[in-house]
Design brief:
With 178 residues, this protein is α+β, with helices and mostly antiparallel strands. It contains six helices and five strands.
Amino acid sequence: INDRVLAGLLAFLTHARARFGDVHVCDDGPLLDVDSSGRGFIELRVHETKVTNRPNRRRKLLPLVALAIGVTGKPWAAEWLKLRKEVGLCAKGGPLVPAISASGVFTKGRLRSSEGIIVLCETLQRMQIVLPEEHRLGTHSCKATLLSWMAKAEAPLAIRKMLGGHSSSTDETALLYS
């Protein structure tokens, strides 16, 4: 069940275009807003992010929003929330998914980015997803994936900047994800 909870975390980070560090301190657990077919959104409100060390960004709300039905067409979000509940995860005031002890139990501490990349690679291996060697993965890969796909699909730059949370007056960061 832990593998599925961790896979759900990776799905959330990818679909919400978020970094591992973005979900270390959550206001509350993820909220699901879906219709009877499972279509809708999953949202998480966070304040502590990579950019909160800047005075003008400190403690600003960052809502992370993802489609509840992902790129596979399956309703992943509802199942993930059910699994989180089964293992006793709530996230209020803490990490979305905490670290896991050597005995396989979720702890109170946060899952660090350095541990997250190990989780990402091990999860992909268990799912028998093999990537070419030139595809270097990092925990930032979750944020970059959909932004890169959007660039390849020629989505307007302004939309890619907004969805990537890039507020700079230049287009440099959004172009980097291309």
